[in-house]
Design the sequence.
């Protein structure tokens, strides 16, 4: 069925990578064959699974720049239904090469076309900017998820971002949909969490996921266990949040 | 004396903007004439002081793209010793124009030269990427501060980033110094805070500031008060942290 979902936001540190890793794990648990693709040159999705850089042969860099086959960059984690393509950008020269090759916005789309039908879901992790990799992800995706931390500038930034994506979509990917806006890092001890949640409901009612991801230490500790939270503490609020999100998406 | 300090990191959401706003406020409180410059096209430093976009006439965008005088972009906040230059990028076309003009890496440096001696400190807020605005900030700065959140990939990302900056410094700004690495968002309830702090001490001993900025709700709530935490709750851990940092820098 090959549904491609890009997880993107221009704001940094809002849980794009955490969402890709944990939503991916949840979809896998629920029986959906899932591929995680790291398009962030600074990305370290592999490190969430305690795979060291020296164990990685090929990644999205090698596929896009050196025309390595996508199938040669897919890492099997030994976890049912979950595979990943690391970013594998080792230094700044490689980052520049990736950027230059990425100027052809549809290169990622054509690469994913070669393996799309092997998976139920392909999740694309994006860097915190509207650069070539994010634009490639937007050109390739069927839909996008925008994680939003409930902090004071979230609404303004979100409005601008959605405008930009709509315009880009009209030019380069008219079928691009908004899967949903996901509230992340919700901290119930902070008054702003409730305030901004309400503002988001007022402004973006139809697009907000019902699921809210709470701030939960299990999610940030997960890399020290080498696996997503659902695989070592499935009843933690963070794990439950992402499982619910997966169910919401699968409906 | 005009010391220019760029606050920069490739990781998103680590407190670059929070550091610029609160360190700036602290330097002002300690009697140093301080200017905050927002080089982030997505930036909203003004919103921390409850200034609305429609109240802003000129910003770094107008100075760099339309050759407006820097002095015409400086906003007096009515706070002693503290002024700001907003980013004032209103839409994507402006963001592209800023990018294109920013390809001349020394344009920010020459702009700042016109007002450098009017201040004791000029703090530059950077976006979460090594794009044209960050490169301009690095070319213009006397020194840099790198905020680091103690999370599991912080060390690896930091090492790569410092390498990149060193190389850039050699080419474009040989006198560029590392003012220090600042641990931010330190959460004493998380075991990883202490672990990563220790790893940072082991790897970057001489460059770590003694001051650590704790996670403190006063810092994230500040925008709802329209002023940095030190101006409404000076004894909060967040305020005290940034005041100590200012003292450490002034020495
Ligand atoms: N719900 C959560 N609870 C606790 N910690 C979280 C949660 N979501 C994310 N984090 C932590 O917050 C930090 C930032 O998250 P993450 O790296 O996923 O954001 P990002 O949007 O991918 O950042 P970037 O913009 O740099 O790519 C990480 O240390 C992560 O472990
Ligand atoms: N010490 C702290 N305690 C509590 N909240 C904090 C602290 N530092 C930053 N924050 C909050 O964390 C969020 C991210 O901080 P901030 O915007 O300063 O990071 P940034 O590095 O500038 O992000 P970006 O990479 O998007 O520019 C904001 O909501 C901010 O209020
Ligand atoms: Mg990320
Ligand atoms: Mg910022």
Sequence:
């Amino acid at each position: 069925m090959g549904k491609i979902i890009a997880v993107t936001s221009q704001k940094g540190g809002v849980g794009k990578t955490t969402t890709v890793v944990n939503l991916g794990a949840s979809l896998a648990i629920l029986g959906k064959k899932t591929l995680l693709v790291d398009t962030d040159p600074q990305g370290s999705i592999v490190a969430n699974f305690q795979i060291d850089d020296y164990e990685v042969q090929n990644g999205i860099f090698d596929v896009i720049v050196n025309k390595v086959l996508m199938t040669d960059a897919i890492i099997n984690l030994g976890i049912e239904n979950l595979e990943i393509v690391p970013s594998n950008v080792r230094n700044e020269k490689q980052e520049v090469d990736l950027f230059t090759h990425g100027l052809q916005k549809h290169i990622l789309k054509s690469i994913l076309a070669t393996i799309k039908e092997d998976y139920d879901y392909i999740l694309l992790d994006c860097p915190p900017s509207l650069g070539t990799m994010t634009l490639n992800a937007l050109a390739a995706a069927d839909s996008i998820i925008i994680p939003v931390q409930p902090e004071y500038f979230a609404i303004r930034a979100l409005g601008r971002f959605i405008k930009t994506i709509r315009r880009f979509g009209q030019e380069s990917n008219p079928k691009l949909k908004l899967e949903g806006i996901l509230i992340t890092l919700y901290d119930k001890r902070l008054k702003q969490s409730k305030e901004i949640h309400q503002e988001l409901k007022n402004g973006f009612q139809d697009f907000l996921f019902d699921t809210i991801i709470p701030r939960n230490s299990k999610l940030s500790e997960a890399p020290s266990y080498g696996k997503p939270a659902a695989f070592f503490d499935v009843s933690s609020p963070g794990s439950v949040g992402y499982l619910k999100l997966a169910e919401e998406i699968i409906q």
Remarks:
- Strands of chain B lie at 3-7, 34-38, 75-79, 82-85, 121-125, 143-148, 177-186, 208-214.
- The CA atoms of residues 166 and 176 of chain B lie 9 Å apart.
- Residues A 16-17, 40 surround magnesium ion (ligand 3) (CB under 6 Å).
